[in-house]
Every structure is written in structure tokens, then in C-alpha cells.
Design goal:
The complex is a heterodimer of chains A (512) and B (390). Chain A is an alpha+beta fold and 512 residues long. Chain A contains 20 helices and 6 strands. Chain A has a 4-stranded antiparallel beta sheet with strand order 4-3-5-6. A two-stranded antiparallel ribbon of chain A has the order 1-2. In chain A, helix 3 packs antiparallel against helix 5 (124-141), helix 3 packs antiparallel against helix 15 and helix 9 (207-227) runs parallel beside helix 17. By secondary structure, chain B is an all-alpha fold. Chain B is 69% helix and 0% strand. Chain B has 17 helices and no strands. Chain B is elongated. The chains are: A alpha+beta (512), B mainly alpha (390). Chains A and B meet through helix 7, helix 11, helix 12, helix 14 and strand 3 of A and helix 1, helix 12, helix 15 and helix 17 of B.
């Protein structure tokens, strides 16, 4: 009889055996782990059977998440992720984005509470991005890993917070992943830190570290899939029918992509892929197929759409779903195996991580759902849109002009946003109501400075979403200079109305 | 139960076979992926699709003829101004003035494709910088400098170009100006020399622009209309279409905000400022605007006369009939609104500003339709950019 048998009731031993078998297969625990070495599952006497099972399950899970797991896959992830962090910074230099995004604009769209974040003067932003690149290299090589990562995260967060018009889902993902990695000793293997300091070497880390990163990437896929469960995506194949037609000149596949059926097929396939790729990656039998599909999907999106490094971050994240020792096995197969010099222990781990991680993922689960608190279509009002993994969800273009009225004299000034913002900022601002509001406040402040008393600012803002005819986005009667940006519903955003069926008519051609 | 050597051997064989099989699958899969990727990225020639034909058609039927017309009309103007300088008495001043107005039409139409060489050569500034610095021009006329094209080239763009010629030739109903221009004295001589030198620079600029586009010389026309090649101007057909559409949006806004809005005073609290118009002396402000609008329309319909197929219009129609309908309606309304503004523009600003306001609104509407529905229907400005991501 097993030593833990007295504590096990209601068939929990078989449950635990099954879990352990599954975890062995997935590489979460070492192959030698057995029910005998697992912590006992204690059940409080008198508890209801279901509660007992749930409680013991929770404890069991908690215990399992503290067990050691091979650091190899996380170290490999660190190398890949660090390389991408380096590329992110280098691209700013290569494309001239530092001047374009940080030095040329006269005004910036601020995030709440971060109005103090401004570009550094002079060569400051070049130094900032240069330091970011250095830190990215440090993460990749594992040189003073935690310092490099923390510095990168702070520098990148600062650069990202300068202007809301540069918000990107995967920049947010990078910050989330950096935040998680900062708590993990991933410089303990395959790093310069491990080379120069024997005490820093480690072969194992607690299992929760691997699962935290897996969960972070899983959330992107899951919420990305959930966001696609809407009529535009599934029933109108929008915006893919527009976007795929952009690539109809591609060899071999171009004509196929331009076909309406292809847009529908890829819309459905994309939604299903996002929803199910993570479970399929976690299951050993389906993992090779899921990974092949994932590689194909991301390379295809990288080729078809100008989405920068996003596919490569996701490919890097997908490597985490393989058994934790996969890089070591690959190296062993190539004749570079062994854990020479690495310590065997997982290192100190307190119980605090449980609470911190639970709170973090509770926020991560709730934030993407917050758009349900607002009326209307999220893609139209964009309330609750950011930080929600709404990836590649809409083709939305806007056009906005402002009217400034001086109440005391009745004078009206037509203002083009281009007088205040760059072309890129204007393009990004026009279809996003909260940015239109911010632009209105900037214009109001400028007119006040020019001596106009209590200027009222109205927006003639129009947008076209996913192939619909343009509609007014913002109530033109509302003085935006007096509106406050906040979490409450923005009543001045006009609801999207059903578009009438297009009428085909021939218009007279006026000869030259 | 201990395994027998036979079982172990068999298992080893199976594992070996399985391992080989699995490795083979991975290798084949990876090779397949890489192969597909390589094929997808390879520059394989394809039968031309509608979009490529539309891009080429717009280049050949709109852009090149417009620049050719600009070149020939500029040369004609330059020849007439030379004649004026050399033999003022024999010159038909009315024809010279008409030659000036004739140059403006293709120049304003060309605003709608002010990318590529036009941007690199700063052609709009070189040919038509506005406002003109009349004080400096007068100072130059009063000086003793030699008024050659070489000398004028050293002056700032706001002291030469078409508006400098306009300053010397117009207004038509100013006998004093005409007398000064035709005077048989050093001052008259210098005015004519200045006009001639400015005309030469305009002709040179137009010739330079044409040469930069001319397909026979391996010019920009081929690089623009054949995207995706090693020396192409655009990486893809879509990028070429994006360029055309975005330029159309910009020009529609320029007509509304600068050419109509500024004189109308919409940016200054309603104070009409006739001096803010670009061609007031020649009375060509409205015809300039109509030409600029015609440039947008030509690009959208892919032809300068009857609409061509395929064109941006037919491409938009294929994706969204309503967007094409709205764009055509907005173009027609803008044209009608501009035609409804009575000539001259200065008088219209004072006496019937409501017609100017209606034209302003119609141009704004055109810009909105182009910037929202038309761009959306062709996916011309994806809101995730290469800088970078979704």
C-alpha cells in the first residue's frame, strides 16, 4: 500500500495517478515522479465530498506548481524573446521611427496618469532606444538578466506611454511577459550569468513559472478567438475579405486569397485556430499538428499583413508548450547534452507567488471582458478595446475636423487636426473617440492660449467600419472641451446604425 | 515480468523505425513549409490582374499625359515670354496670358500625383510657390543683377515660378501694369527679362519632371506601374494603389482647407481674406481648384476623358458598390459646387460667400468619403502598421 493511502478517499488516488501520468507526459514533472513522491492529498474531515475534492484538487495543483521543472525551455524562450526585444529597439533606428514618433510631433496622446511621460530632449530618445537595445541583448545573452529585463521593461514602458497613437497589442504583451519574467531566474542556464557565477546556475525552476508564461500567451489566443465570434468576422468575413484582396498579386496563392470563399474560410479557420490552438498544443498527441498549424498561421499572417514582429513573438511563445526539456533533448541529439555545473534545486520559492499570480491573472481575465459594461459595438465605440487582445479585428477609417466656437462673439474656426498632429497621429486618432476627445482638449487649450475666451470644441467625426458606409461617430452638438475622459460610458459617441443596402446607380459623367 | 531479449530487440527495432519515421515527418514538414515560403516570396511573373492593370492604366492614361501636357504648355509659355523679352511690340500679350493660364491646368491636375519625382524634385514649390514675395521681386527688378535663369535659380522659390510670371503679366485690366511691362526703357526691359527667365525655369522644371517619369528613359512611370520588382517604387500593387488614394485624400483636403477655406476665413473665425487665394491676380483661383479636383477625378476614373476600366473606381465598386457610388456622387457634387461659385473668386467671396461655403462643404465631404469608405474598401490604410503590429 502506498504511504499516502490513509489520506486518500473518494477515488482521489486514481485521479492523482492520472494527473501525474499526464504531467509526466507533458514534461511538467520529471519522468521519475510517482504517486508516492507526490505530496499527500489531505481532506478535511466532515467536508462535503465535492468541496473535499475541489479543495484537495487545489492543494494538489498548488503543490504541483511548486515542483521543479527543467529550466531548458524557459531558457530557450529567454534567448528567443530577448532577441526579439533587441530587434524591436533596432527597428526604431532602422526605420527612422525615433524622429517620426518622438521628435517630430508637437503634441502627444496621453494615457491616464502618464501625462508626465514625454520624449527626452535632444538625443535623449536615441540614447533611450539604444539602451533598450543593449538591455534586449542582455536578456538574450543572459547577462545580468534580471537587471537587463527590468531596465528593458521600464524603458519600453516609458517609450510606449509617450503616445497613445502607437498602442499595439503585442507591445502590451511584451510588457506583460517582461513583468512575469522579471520574477523568474531565467538567467540560470545558457547565459553569461551562469558562466561567470556558479551559484546562479540552475537546472530547474518551479513549475508555475512555465505555466505563468504559457497562460499569458494562451490568453492572447483565447481572447483573440472570442473577439472574433461576431457577425462581421463570421458572417461577413470582414475585415479579411478586404485585407486578403490586398495580396491578390502573390504568386500561386494570390488569386485564391482574393476569392470571397477564401475570406470566409480564413475567418472561420482563424477564429477556430485562436480558440483551440492552446488546448491542442497542450495535448501531446495533437501538439505536432497544432504547432505546424501555428507556424503556418503566423508565417502566413507575417507575409500577408504588415504586422511587424507580432507573429514572431507568438511563435516564440509557442515553444513554451513543448515539454520543458525539449531544448536539452535537441542538444543531446546534436551531441551537446548535459547539465554540467548547474545546480539541481529549483531555488527558493515562497507562497507569495500564488497570491500575486492569482491576482495578476484575475486582472488579465477581467480586463478583456470590461467592454461588456459599455453599450453598443466595441469596435465602433472602442470603449474597452485596448488591453483586450482584440487582434486584427477591424478595418476602420475615420475623418475628423474640429469646429471651435467662441461663445462670447459667435466666431467659428474650422480646425484641421493636421495643424496639431502628424499624419500618422491623425490617422490613428480619427476613428478612436477617446483620442478625438483628447485632440479636442489640446485644440481648446491652444485657442485659450491664443486669447479665445472659453472656446467650445465640436467634432465633425465620421468613420467607416468593416466595409460599411461612413457614419457620424461623435455627436456634433457636444462641446468636447467640457467632456471629461474617464471609465464611464461616453454618451457623446453616436451608436452605429444599420447601414442601408447600397444602391447601384450610374451617375452622369461630366466631360472634360 | 522480465522482458525477453526478443521483445527488447523488437522494441528497439520499432523505436528505431518510429524514430526514423518521426524524424522524416518533421524534415518533410519543415522542408514543405520552407518551400512554400520560398515560392510565396519568389518573384514569379503572373498574368496581370485588374489592380495591376488599373495602376498601369492610371500611370499611362493620366499621369504621363498630364506631365506631357505640362511640359509642352510650359515650353510654349517660355517661348512666348522669350518673344516678349526680345520683341515686345510684336508680342500678343493676350496669347501670352492665355499660355500662362494653360500651364496652370495640368499643373493643378498633377497635384493629385505629387509623389515620387514631384516630391523628390520639390516640383510644386519650384514651379508654383505661393504666396509670392512681391517685395523681394520688386527689389530684384530694381537691382542691377543680371536677370538670367541661372540668377533666378539662386533666389528663393517664393521669388520665381509661375506666380512671379503672374505678378508681371496680370491683372489683365491694369493699363499701368501693361505699360510698365511693354515700356521701351530699362525698367520695362528688366520686367520682361525677369518673366522670360522665370518662364525658362518653369519650362526646365516641367521638362525635368517629365524626364523623371518618362518610361523610355527607365523613369519613374515604369517603376511605379510595375510594383514588386527589384527597382520598383512600390513593394506591391497595393502599395501603389495606397499611394494614389492617399494623395487623393490629401489634395481634396488642400482644396478645401487651403484654396477655399483660407480665403473664406473658416480658419480665422469667418473673416474673409481674398488675398489668401493663390491666383488672385490672374483670376484663376477657381479654375485652379477645378483643375485640382479634376486631377483627383482623373486618378479615380483612370483616364482624363471617358472613364477607363479597370480603374480605382471599378476596383472600389467590386469590393463595395456603395463606396464607389458615394465617391462618384461626392466628386460630382464637389465639381457642381465649384462650378456654382461665380467668377471671379474675389467677388464671390464678398458677394456670395454661401456658394463658396457650399463648395467648401462639398470638398470636405469628398475628403471624408475618400478617407473612410474608399480607403476602407481597398484596405488602403490598415490600422496596424509596420510600426509595428496589429
Amino acid at each position: 500500500m502506498a504511504t499516502s493511502a490513509p489520506h486518500v478517499t473518494y477515488g482521489q488516488r486514481s485521479l492523482r495517478d492520472r494527473l501525474l501520468r499526464g504531467m509526466r507526459r507533458m514534461g511538467i514533472v520529471s519522468p521519475g515522479a510517482s504517486p508516492q513522491t507526490a505530496p499527500p492529498l489531505r481532506v478535511r474531515p466532515g467536508a462535503a465530498p465535492l468541496g473535499k475534492l475541489a479543495l484537495s484538487h487545489l492543494r494538489c495543483t498548488s503543490a504541483r506548481l511548486q515542483r521543479p521543472v527543467d529550466v531548458a525551455s524557459l531558457a530557450a524562450f529567454r534567448v528567443g524573446f530577448g532577441a526579439l526585444l533587441l530587434v524591436v529597439a533596432v527597428r526604431y533606428f532602422a526605420h527612422g521611427w525615433i524622429a517620426e514618433y518622438f521628435l517630430n510631433p508637437r503634441h502627444f496622446f496621453k494615457y491616464w496618469g502618464f501625462a508626465w511621460v514625454r520624449p527626452w530632449p535632444g538625443l535623449g530618445m536615441y540614447l533611450h532606444l539604444g539602451l533598450m537595445a543593449t538591455c534586449g541583448l542582455g536578456v538574450m545573452l543572459g547577462y545580468r538578466y534580471r537587471l537587463s529585463l527590468a531596465c528593458y521593461a521600464l524603458l519600453f514602458a516609458y517609450a510606449s506611454l509617450i503616445d497613445k497613437s502607437h498602442y499595439l497589442n503585442h507591445y502590451y504583451l511584451v510588457l506583460c511577459v517582461c513583468g512575469l519574467m522579471a520574477w523568474m531566474p531565467l538567467g540560470g542556464a545558457w547565459s553569461l550569468d551562469a558562466r561567470r557565477d556558479a551559484g546562479a546556475r540552475r537546472a530547474f525552476v518551479p513549475t508555475w513559472m512555465l505555466w505563468a508564461l504559457r497562460a499569458q500567451f494562451a490568453l492572447v489566443y483565447f481572447f483573440g478567438g472570442v473577439a472574433k465570434l461576431n457577425g462581421d468576422w463570421l458572417l461577413r468575413a470582414q475585415p479579411l475579405s478586404v485585407w486578403l484582396a490586398r495580396s491578390q498579386e502573390l504568386p500561386l496563392v494570390g488569386r485564391v486569397l482574393a476569392a470571397p470563399a477564401a475570406a470566409f474560410a480564413m475567418s472561420w479557420a482563424g477564429a477556430l485556430f485562436d480558440l483551440f490552438v492552446v488546448p491542442l498544443l497542450l495535448a501531446r498527441r495533437t501538439r505536432p499538428f497544432a504547432f505546424a498549424a501555428l507556424v503556418l498561421f503566423h508565417l502566413l499572417t507575417a507575409r500577408l499583413f504588415p504586422i511587424g514582429l507580432f507573429p514572431y513573438f507568438m511563435l516564440c511563445g509557442a515553444s513554451l508548450f513543448f515539454p520543458a526539456d525539449w531544448p536539452r533533448k535537441v542538444l543531446e541529439r546534436w551531441g551537446y547534452g548535459g547539465r554540467a555545473g548547474e545546480t539541481a534545486g529549483p531555488g527558493p520559492s515562497t507562497g507569495a507567488w500564488k497570491w500575486a499570480l492569482s491576482a495578476y491573472f484575475a486582472v488579465q481575465l477581467l480586463v478583456p471582458l470590461r467592454h461588456w459594461l459599455y453599450p453598443g459595438q466595441m469596435c465602433w465605440s472602442e470603449q474597452g478595446f485596448r488591453y483586450s487582445w482584440n487582434v486584427m479585428l477591424m478595418e476602420k477609417n475615420g475623418s475628423v475636423d474640429f469646429r471651435v466656437v467662441e461663445p462670447s462673439t459667435g466666431r467659428v474656426f474650422q480646425v484641421s487636426p493636421r495643424e496639431y498632429f502628424t499624419a500618422y497621429q491623425t490617422d490613428m486618432m480619427s476613428p478612436q473617440p477617446d483620442m478625438v476627445l483628447e485632440a479636442a482638449r489640446v485644440i481648446a487649450a491652444d485657442f485659450r492660449a491664443r486669447g479665445v475666451q472659453e472656446p467650445a470644441v465640436y467634432a465633425d467625426a465620421f468613420a467607416a467600419l468593416n466595409g460599411r458606409p461612413m457614419q457620424r461617430l461623435i455627436d456634433p452638438r457636444v462641446d468636447l472641451a467640457r467632456e471629461v475622459d474617464g471609465l464611464s460610458n461616453k454618451t457623446w459617441i453616436l451608436p452605429m446604425t444599420p447601414s442601408p443596402e447600397p444602391r447601384i446607380a450610374s451617375l452622369p459623367w461630366s466631360p472634360r | 515480468m522480465p522482458k525477453t531479449p526478443v521483445n527488447l530487440r523488437r522494441r528497439a527495432e520499432l523505436e528505431k523505425r518510429f524514430q526514423i519515421h518521426r524524424r522524416g515527418t518533421w524534415v518533410a514538414g519543415a522542408a514543405g513549409l520552407l518551400g512554400s515560403w520560398a515560392v510565396a516570396c519568389a518573384p514569379v511573373s503572373l498574368p496581370d490582374g485588374d489592380r495591376r492593370v488599373a495602376l498601369r492604366g492610371t500611370t499611362e492614361q493620366v499621369i504621363l499625359p498630364t506631365y506631357a501636357e505640362l511640359r509642352s504648355r510650359s515650353a510654349d509659355l517660355s517661348a512666348r515670354l522669350d518673344e516678349l523679352a526680345n520683341d515686345p511690340e510684336a508680342t500678343d500679350l493676350a496669347a501670352t496670358r492665355q499660355a500662362y493660364l494653360d500651364v496652370r491646368a495640368p499643373l493643378e491636375e498633377a497635384l493629385a500625383f505629387g509623389f515620387g519625382p514631384a516630391a523628390e524634385l520639390h516640383s510644386q514649390a519650384a514651379l508654383d510657390q505661393s504666396p509670392l514675395d512681391t517685395t523681394k521681386v520688386d527689389a530684384e527688378l530694381a537691382s542691377e543683377s543680371e536677370l538670367t535663369p541661372q540668377h533666378l535659380r539662386t533666389l528663393g522659390a517664393n521669388k520665381r515660378g509661375l506666380h512671379a510670371i503672374e505678378y508681371l503679366l496680370f491683372p489683365e485690366d491694369d493699363p499701368a501694369l501693361e505699360a510698365a511691362l511693354l515700356a521701351d526703357d530699362p525698367a520695362g526691359e528688366r520686367r520682361r527679362r525677369f518673366a522670360s527667365a522665370a518662364g525658362q525655369l518653369v519650362a526646365d522644371g516641367a521638362q525635368e519632371l517629365w524626364a523623371a517619369w518618362e518610361p523610355q528613359n527607365g523613369g519613374y512611370a515604369r517603376r511605379f506601374s510595375e510594383p514588386g520588382g527589384p527597382d520598383s517604387a512600390s513593394a506591391s500593387v497595393q502599395a501603389g494603389l495606397d499611394t494614389l488614394l492617399n494623395e487623393a485624400v490629401v489634395v481634396s483636403e488642400v482644396i478645401a482647407n487651403v484654396k477655399l477655406g483660407k480665403p473664406l476665413g473658416v480658419t480665422t473665425g469667418g473673416q474673409v481674406d481674398a488675398a489668401a487665394q493663390e491666383s488672385e491676380r490672374a483670376g484663376a483661383s477657381l479654375s485652379d481648384m477645378r483643375s485640382s479636383l479634376r486631377g483627383i477625378r482623373n486618378v479615380y476614373f483612370g483616364a482624363r476623358e471617358e472613364p477607363a476600366e479597370p480603374s480605382l473606381s471599378t476596383l472600389v465598386h467590386a469590393k463595395s458598390p456603395s463606396a464607389d457610388l458615394h465617391a462618384r456622387a461626392a466628386l460630382a457634387e464637389a465639381e457642381a459646387a465649384l462650378l456654382a461659385v461665380p467668377e471671379p473668386f474675389t467677388q464671390a467671396l464678398e458677394e456670395s460667400p454661401e456658394t463658396v461655403r457650399a463648395a467648401y462643404d462639398a470638398l470636405k465631404n469628398l475628403k471624408r468619403v475618400l478617407a473612410t469608405e474608399v480607403l476602407s474598401s481597398l484596405g488602403a490604410s490598415l490600422k496596424f502598421s509596420d510600426a509595428d503590429g496589429d
